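Submission sheet (multi-component)
Chains listed below:
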Amino acid sequence: MLENDLILRAARGEKTERTPVWVMRQAGRILPEYRAVRAKLSGFKELVETPELAAEVTIQPVDHLGVDAAIIFSDILVIPEAMGLQYEMIEKKGPIFPSTIQSASDLNKIHVAQADELSYTIEAIKITKKELNGRVPVIGFAGAPWTIFAYMIEGAGSKTFSKARKMLYTNPELSHQLMEMITESTIAYLKGQIEAGADMVQVFDSWAGILPADQYREFSIRYISAICKSITEVPVTVFAKGAYFALKDIKNLSCDTVGLDWNMDIAEAKELLNNKTLQGNLDPCVLYGSDEQVISATQSMLDQFKGHHHIANLGHGVYPDTNPKKVKLFIDTVKGYN
Amino acid sequence: MLENDLILRAARGEKTERTPVWVMRQAGRILPEYRAVRAKLSGFKELVETPELAAEVTIQPVDHLGVDAAIIFSDILVIPEAMGLQYEMIEKKGPIFPSTIQSASDLNKIHVAQADELSYTIEAIKITKKELNGRVPVIGFAGAPWTIFAYMIEGAGSKTFSKARKMLYTNPELSHQLMEMITESTIAYLKGQIEAGADMVQVFDSWAGILPADQYREFSIRYISAICKSITEVPVTVFAKGAYFALKDIKNLSCDTVGLDWNMDIAEAKELLNNKTLQGNLDPCVLYGSDEQVISATQSMLDQFKGHHHIANLGHGVYPDTNPKKVKLFIDTVKGYN
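Outcome: structure written.
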């Protein structure tokens, strides 16, 4: 039994006493408590792969920021790794894959991942659930197949992801095969997270915004849709960053909640996505402002979402140099809003 | 007198025998003739600052690709440099500013640039005009104030430009002061380019897509509008990449042509921007495809723009590893389209 299930009720479109709130990347670099744990380790991946510590940093924002949900501390790139493509996380630079998928024969070096190949995250969720003891729900997550595909082809972050986009044109068959393998792995992984206790899950399509609409439909929406259809146990949130051109397709997904980035027009989203709970969408840079600015921008955002099922959040992950006091002020402003 | 003024007539909303075509970044790394010139030099900036050579690479795509316009070879960051902030262009990494604007006192180290401080570009345009001898028009260009501001604060490229966006919240006064200085410098520079012979000019707002709509209006549209109002001599194109949320504001600019990126829905843009010529918007990654794919995607794009004044282009600068034959095929397909 959960003491605070606001976020689950909001996701299901039920009435809530107030708007629930959490923050993308709330478990991470902004908290001194996180940095203290992280400093003892060799790197980011050691933290992801050590269930007790991953659980500890997952719970920190519940204790220190007062959020209405914990999101499991992990990374979307655990999926390609479980499929057989190792990655390294380079401090201040991002992920690097020494080996990538370039041809059909490269598909032989990878496989569809099973949940038990990601036992560190599954275990971390179990520990988190136990330690939270019902205080707030736990959110599981995974990357959307297109975003994972983009890293597996490109081998690193990129401004244009032109290698990954090139593959969609030059080898659509291989692209679909790989997307299917990622999708199957992701479904197994999310189901494992749910069995371990995740109360809802979010699918992050971080690189949604760089595809033309027709390709986004063919290579991304199709696979996100397969994931949404498979996950019937708990509410599902889809956050397709920058995919303003695909809101009509997103409306037809069998997900409960849609995340909005800070560019999205709230009034338009309310109208178009009248069958979904909406999540978001304060510009994370607002949290660099004065207390007055944080309060007023948060209230203005809440005013705009009025009359719609809403989970308050930022429109992007919180930036690492944000003062945690400002994050807490954002959260407190949501909680105190009438 | 110009032999081929298709692009100018299309920009002015006049009838043309066929759709004119050029390619963003057509003068550059895709051409072996460019790389031959570049290989003899110490770096990118030497090419920008040597008028004879800048003119030579400006004309190359007219000779080798058959485009309907030459765009002067230069960089948007010449403006901050002329204002007093030097930059370095690091191969494969992008620009770095050793010194940036962080506080009001930093404004004392810079000044409003005059066109004669950018005499190398002005001179390059004069040489280009002379050598082209009326074959096609010459396009001049500059960055939009928000994009230039973003580099002057951030000091380098960035995925989030969170430092630049932070400044808009924490010091709007300084932000407006700097925007005004950039705007004034840009107007002087564009007028200098026009006096030297530029037949039209384009304003690139490369980082338009990362601002919330209200900030985009306050900190970008306002200054682009000032530029558009000042440039009455020749047609003006505004390319605000990713600014789908601001099309209504862009409609009200006193520019002639609006560039569309490859995410933009052509039908919606035609309806909303019925007072503008539209430019774009093929996904540059299409040029990685087969000849059949290039032809069919180009024709499909032209079909969609039918009935609207249109200048064919990509929706982004051509990517450096694109085969020039595919670029030529794109251009020839536009020219042969009925």
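Remark: The two ends of chain B are 27 Å apart (CA to CA).
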